[in-house]
Amino acid sequence: MKKVLVIVVVYNGLHWLERCLSSVRGANVFVVDNDSTDGSADWIQSHFPEVTLLRSAENLGFSKANNLGFLRAMDKGYDYVYLLNQDAWLEEGALEKLVAAAQAHPEYAVLSPLQFQDGYQALDCQFAKLYSGTVLPLNRTDGKAAGVFEGAAPPVLSLKRVMAAHWLVPVKTLEEIGLFNENLFGFYGQDDDWCHRAHFHGKKVGVLPSARAVHDRARREESVEKIIFRNYYTGSLVRLCDINHPLWDRFCYVLLFTLVKAVKYRKMLVFKYFRDICRQLPAVREHRRRVC
Fold this sequence. Notes:
The protein has helices at about 15-20, 40-45, 60-75, 95-105, 125-130, 170-175, 190-200, 225-240, 245-265, 270-280, 280-290; strands spanning about 5-10, 30-35, 50-55, 80-85, 90, 110-115, 155-160, 165-170, 205-215. It is an alpha/beta fold and about 290 residues long.
């Protein structure tokens, strides 16, 4: 099997770590603990001593922490990286299926398994939204278990993007497209931005239906302010950075997006973030220039 480095970024993820790390036991695993306060790092060191654990003295965010893993994979001669969320885990054999599919389909910059809710009764809610436009829907209406296809499962299905809770990425492709942008997308949006960049470079983003995994969101609690930051502020920056569209086109979209979100949330915070977005335009232009 090709050399794969599994990268797990941890921040107060003690509830999930047993299932997460057990699902990749035997693989090469690199964990970045973002200064957790719930004992996650000590638990990992005690229960998974074979894991390479980096303890950060601060919360580096998702992008910077994963970039450390990317750089390690490049430096150590790995063939693939697998991004695995702390609240996610793989079915047995899923990683091997993904690697085999990546070798057979080198045009894909990202391959993901089907991402389910815990218990496999339905797809992960965000994954389902991305997956809903595919031509071969899952059969979940006739009493069969979720994940059974109507007819034979296709080898790979192409999507516009997929969340980085489960990502297999060839290191050669990573070297071509580049790392996550740590400045604009510290905590959210980096996966969407990277998928846009992959498409710009002529690569594809896909799902392997024969591989299954879980992304568990059950214990997440988010304030309205956090949702506005993630969905409006970060989402707007992702759209502005999308090199597949002219910047003026994306800015017009963000203007409309601002009005819609202001009405939806009835919060002045939306307009504060719009001001911050405008201040980020020089960084957005630089990001787009570098992608080209």
